[in-house]
Amino acid sequence: MSSASQNYRLSDDLLGPVLAILDAYRDPYLALGLVSAGCIRTLDLDGKCLRLGLIYPYPCLTQHHDTVIALTKQLTLLDAIDEVECEIDFKLAQISAIPSVEPLPNVKQVIAIASGKGGVGKSTTAVNLALALAGEGAQVGILDADIYGPSIPLMLGVSEFKPESPDGKMMTAAKAHGIAAQSIGFMLGQEEAAVWRGPMVAGALTQLINETLWPELDYLIIDMPPGTGDIQLTLSQKVPVTGAIIVTTPQDIALADAKKGINMFQKVNIPVLGIVENMSFHICSECGHKEHPFGSHGGSKMAERYHVPLLGGIAT
Ligand SMILES: Nc1ncnc2c1ncn2[C@@H]1O[C@H](COP(=O)(O)OP(=O)(O)OP(=O)(O)O)[C@@H](O)[C@H]1O
């Protein structure tokens, strides 16, 4: 039994069957029973009401309802339990993939969204991922590091935001749709940034990440500049990235560039969390037929070859 067992206030007779039921419930993402995954925080019996406290290592608000229904159904089969009161929370570990790069003080995990090639939907994926994580109950920030086309301000409807610096050192972030946002586009005109050379870009971006007044964040999503050159490499080595997601489209040319992206992250020991295949398919609005205008299976073949998960395909 885990070290949390001091928080289990159940008789020995009841504890065994309750833990067996909880461990038979397998979390779909952890691929473990709730006890084996260390998710049981508290167990208490008040009359015939079981008070259950669960703690997950990832945010999962949209699963709460189904989890509580399923557990209640099984637990109330026991004679001693008539009802279940369940509280679910989550706590992320603070992880920097490169040990020599210190984590950001307010940020638990940093996810880099990268693509070898521009225009494949990296910013779209970054914004949607940020909003989806916020929808799961996480505190999320997004950093638009795409110096050659900072589109996050527009996508979040905060193009007019101008960061302030109350102490002359750190800059405020914008707040939109429940997430914090910082963009190189808030500081510079597009033409201005586009002529910067690589080292300048990498330096400015590292500064932007470190000198933003991020609120307490579970995830900071970074919309990386497209490509796999020096800028991307420097950023990956200076920013405490937890993992990277590669966005591609199914065309051969995009896939070839995406492979370079995977190689780059693997070379610097940053885990590639998976591949997202954007513009993967199209559903005809007339007849509902699904077609693959840019080719099919490119993302899945690449995922197989590089032993990384295919996280999903997005329609066009
Ligand atoms: N699945 C999709 N279906 C339709 N349009 C899309 C899709 N994904 C992205 N787009 C559009 O394609 C354009 C490029 O997308 P986005 O800015 O996300 O790409 P990017 O890879 O970040 O580009 P860049 O590297 O130039 O910044 C945008 O106008 C976006 O709205």
Automatic annotation (TrEMBL):
<dbReference type="InterPro" id="IPR027417">
    <property type="entry name" value="P-loop_NTPase"/>
</dbReference>
<keyword id="KW-0067">ATP-binding</keyword>
<dbReference type="GO" id="GO:0140663">
    <property type="term" value="F:ATP-dependent FeS chaperone activity"/>
</dbReference>
<keyword id="KW-0378">Hydrolase</keyword>
<dbReference type="GO" id="GO:0005524">
    <property type="term" value="F:ATP binding"/>
</dbReference>
<protein>
    <recommendedName>
        <fullName>Iron-sulfur cluster carrier protein</fullName>
    </recommendedName>
</protein>
<comment type="function">
    <text>Binds and transfers iron-sulfur (Fe-S) clusters to target apoproteins. Can hydrolyze ATP.</text>
</comment>
<keyword id="KW-0547">Nucleotide-binding</keyword>
<keyword id="KW-0408">Iron</keyword>
<dbReference type="GO" id="GO:0046872">
    <property type="term" value="F:metal ion binding"/>
</dbReference>
<dbReference type="Pfam" id="PF10609">
    <property type="entry name" value="ParA"/>
</dbReference>
<dbReference type="GO" id="GO:0005829">
    <property type="term" value="C:cytosol"/>
</dbReference>
<dbReference type="GO" id="GO:0051539">
    <property type="term" value="F:4 iron, 4 sulfur cluster binding"/>
</dbReference>
<dbReference type="InterPro" id="IPR044304">
    <property type="entry name" value="NUBPL-like"/>
</dbReference>
<keyword id="KW-0411">Iron-sulfur</keyword>
<dbReference type="GO" id="GO:0016887">
    <property type="term" value="F:ATP hydrolysis activity"/>
</dbReference>
<comment type="subunit">
    <text>Homodimer.</text>
</comment>
<keyword id="KW-0479">Metal-binding</keyword>
<dbReference type="InterPro" id="IPR034904">
    <property type="entry name" value="FSCA_dom_sf"/>
</dbReference>
<feature type="binding site">
    <location>
        <begin position="116"/>
        <end position="123"/>
    </location>
    <ligand>
        <name>ATP</name>
    </ligand>
</feature>
<comment type="similarity">
    <text>Belongs to the Mrp/NBP35 ATP-binding proteins family.</text>
</comment>
<dbReference type="InterPro" id="IPR019591">
    <property type="entry name" value="Mrp/NBP35_ATP-bd"/>
</dbReference>
<dbReference type="GO" id="GO:0016226">
    <property type="term" value="P:iron-sulfur cluster assembly"/>
</dbReference>
<dbReference type="InterPro" id="IPR033756">
    <property type="entry name" value="YlxH/NBP35"/>
</dbReference>
<dbReference type="InterPro" id="IPR000808">
    <property type="entry name" value="Mrp-like_CS"/>
</dbReference>
